[in-house]
Amino acid sequence: MRLHNTIRKLRFNANEMSQQTLAEKIGVTRQTVIAIEKDKYSPSLEVAFKIALVFDIPLEQIFSYE
Amino acid sequence: MNYSLKEKGLIASLIITLIVFGDYFIDVFRSLNSTEPNQNGLMNIITVVILIAVLEAIIHSILAGVNDEVEDERDKLIERLSYRNAYWVLCVGAWFLIAQVFLDATFMPIVGLTTTPFGLANLILFAFILAEVIMFITQLYYYRKGVV
Prior knowledge:
A: 66 residues; mainly alpha; two-stranded antiparallel sheet; 9% strand; B: mainly alpha
């Protein structure tokens, strides 16, 4: 079981939002955004909710546990 | 392979530690074999500490110039995990030395390692440096492989 996410797709749909822009909006480094996208890091609830707020969609549409 | 600035800093610190302290410990363990007192013991360790401090300061000032990223939750988590690993190494080293001193055992191959204050101090230092090296390596591992 691993945490997967659709952040890469969501960034693409948001006018190709850069990793740096997303990182600044959610208060982490670009390296952390890269790690989250590659499923190499599970973000805290706080960061997960911030990502949901940036893309304005529910949390479960971004993260899935499978 | 692409390395982040954080990883480059860790690699540099690891290399500096291994080279400087590696050279120091080779000299120390060789000198423990001789029966003559080590007159330069204190000077050597002071030199090594100053050398490490200067080299680390140079590297971190170079990296600080190009790295404008602050630490975030992932960095802090990786740091915590690495400190935990280093702690275990230090604990094993400390317990090993305590056992050696209490038992006054002599099964170490290098004469004078635990029987002289100089040898004992260097073994404690060795445990510290080993813990530091483990910290650098595990930090690099978590940055590369991820923490999930």
